[in-house]
Specification:
By secondary structure, the chain is of the alpha+beta class. The strands form two sheets. Strands 1-2-5 form a three-stranded antiparallel sheet, with no helix packed on it. A two-stranded antiparallel sheet has the order 3-4. The longest helix is centred in the middle third of the chain and has 5 residues. The termini are far apart. The structure holds iron/sulfur cluster (2 copies). One iron/sulfur cluster (SF4) binds next to helix 1.
Amino acid sequence: MKGSGSASKLPEAVISEDEFNRLEVIPDYCKDCGICIAFCPTHILESRGGTVIVTDIAGCTGCGQCELRCPDFAITVTAKKRRTKKVKKQV
Ligand code: SF4
Ligand code: SF4
């Protein structure tokens, strides 16, 4: 048997996805600093309950800015397929 005590549990990710993009947010890692929200060009990220949520995955361009700017590795973007239709910038 390996080690003792209980096995360490990985923090759970909240997943938002459509056929084009997949976003994973790990609330346990998120400190709700708002950096990703500020950098998202289509404004689809929002602070809620001490973490970040994706309000509209259909607005995600898969640009990766949120992942790149997050200092805590709390958000991961996987661009699955390129959108052919332009995503409208939300206000
Ligand atoms: S990948 Fe780009 S468009 Fe999608 S949530 Fe992150 S910053 Fe916004
Ligand atoms: S940048 Fe990272 S830590 Fe800051 S709000 Fe976004 S996901 Fe959370």
